[in-house]
Amino acid sequence: MPTDYSCQVLTAGFSFHRKPYAGIHPDGVKNYLLRLQTDGRCRARIDGEMSLVDAGDLLLFSPDEPYELKIDNERNPMGERLVESGDYHIFFNGSWVDEWWERHKRPNRIKVELTESLLTLFRQLVLEQRRISNPYPEISSYYMRILCLEVDRLLAEHPTITNTNYVAYEIKNYIEENASSLFKLEDVATHVGISVSRGVHLFKEAFGKSIMQYTLDVRLNMARERIIFSPMTLEHVAESSGFNNYTYFHRVFRSRFGMSPKEFRLIHREQM
């Protein structure tokens, strides 16, 4: 099977530092670099200045951009000063990557939510690079493309993130990942470490709708897809989409889509 090297992963790894480290590349690292801070803190040269990098900071560098990284004593959230820094890092290149990079103006740093889906992409790329015998290197290429496109989506959804609206996006991601199960506003607030009232206010300010309104939107979209494409009973669709009451599900579904779940299934399956 031919390998498509238009997007090639050169190195993918995970590092955890408990001792000081410094790396300086004034002429760039000669390949594209994605570095995701997962634990602790460090400092990196961003927009010409050494800046603090926290967990959830995704760094992006093109081949010729100056790159400098310093891991030293930093004060953690508990006020302790220690050396602690964990990160995923991927060096990659290729003609597809060149075209991808040029599509948008890319900042050196994006604040992201450390979701399981994002971390899984980094983990999978690391695992692929560790394979001693790998007859399918194009798999890494495809994973890398998905990761690059995920970066585009992150930029499109929240191009400028402050510490305040970052919490709102944490709430949004929590809803999307947990919509199929029942949760309360208290569960959401506990997850992001703030009060319920503060979480409700920040989410409404960022997205123009309440947490529960957005949760309902996600659940209804989930149910709609399952009604069309799955063999589940309508009661099972409702339950697996986060509704514990079929009567309520039936009512809100009809209100949103103008027909009952049964009518919706019949119409859309006739069109398939």
UniProtKB/TrEMBL annotation:
Keywords of this entry: DNA-binding, Transcription, Transcription regulation
HTH araC/xylS-type domain location: 169-267
A Pfam family it matches: AraC_binding
Domain of life: Bacteria
SMART domains named among the record's database cross-references: HTH_ARAC
Gene3D superfamilies: Homeodomain-like, Regulatory protein AraC
Name of this protein: Helix-turn-helix domain-containing protein
Phylogenetic placement of the source organism: Bacteria, Bacillati, Bacillota, Bacilli, Bacillales
